[in-house]
Design goal:
Order of helices and strands: EHEHEHEHEHHEEEEEHEEEEEH
Shape: elongated
Length: 247
């Protein structure tokens, strides 16, 4: 069970979120603070695993509070809870685990708690555990005017679209303002280039046809082409990922 803090200047919002959190068996102690200053005082004396912060609080805002927590030796996982759809990118810059829009839905809060727990596990793992770090990495994406956070390991493949990149997950695709060449460099631990237009996540590869005139790979329901230029690097990555019997 994890202990949490709710910081919001509106008591009804605190009561509602506390009620929803209390329905999840993974949640233990629920602390409350009606201002950023009160939250700081509480966090200096109580052990808290996750902080659910409203952004727009008078005095010390949720973002101000998050920056202050960077000085803490043990920093709680941060989840911003707000009606403001426009601040997700700043929340991402502050290493937020999630970004919840009010009114908070039960199933969405459940996923947020799961992300908090996964982030705590990744933080406790050795620094060399690249898989855990990748799982905890979050990306701010926008779809239909709504901004949300997705995990890197949800991305099955990346498609180049001009100077931008489109991230394809099981549920949807999201256009992000990052060149695919940058993602290729930053995500080299789990992604491989198969074509000038595609990066694929190695854990999501389902089927491969690398012989013949038209090599391809299958990721989910998508069959993607493999260029002759990228084929040797793909074979090398697959060879290094193959489990071999002990000698």
């Amino acid at each position: 069970m994890i202990s949490v803090l709710i910081a919001d200047d509106e008591q009804p919002a605190i009561d509602e979120l506390a009620f929803l959190l209390g329905q999840d068996p993974r949640i233990g102690i629920i602390h409350q603070a009606s201002s950023g200053a009160e939250a700081i005082r509480l966090l200096t004396r109580e052990r808290v695993d996750a902080a659910f912060l409203d952004i727009h609080m008078p005095g010390l805002s949720g973002f101000d509070l998050a920056r202050a927590l960077q000085r803490f030796e043990r920093r709680p996982a941060l989840v911003f809870v707000t009606a403001d759809e426009e601040s997700a990118l700043e929340a991402f810059d502050l290493a937020a685990v999630d970004y919840l829009l009010k009114p908070v839905r039960t199933e969405r809060l459940h996923r947020s708690i799961t992300r908090v727990i996964e982030a705590m596990k990744a933080q406790a793992a050795p620094a060399t555990d690249a898989a855990a770090a990748a799982q905890a990495e979050l990306i701010a994406v926008t779809l239909g005017g709504t901004t949300r956070m997705i995990r890197r390991d949800e991305v099955r493949y990346v498609q180049a679209q001009g100077d931008y990149a489109r991230l394809h997950t099981e549920e949807a695709s999201y256009l992000v303002r990052v060149p695919m060449s940058d993602l290729e460099r930053q995500w080299a631990d789990t992604f491989v280039r198969i074509h000038r237009s595609y990066l694929v996540a190695i854990p999501h590869l389902a089927r491969l046809r690398l012989a013949g005139d038209h090599p391809s790979v299958t990721v989910g329901a998508a069959e993607l082409p493999v260029s002759r230029r990228c084929l040797p690097a793909l074979r090398e990555r697959l060879e290094s990922a193959t489990i071999r019997p002990r000698s």
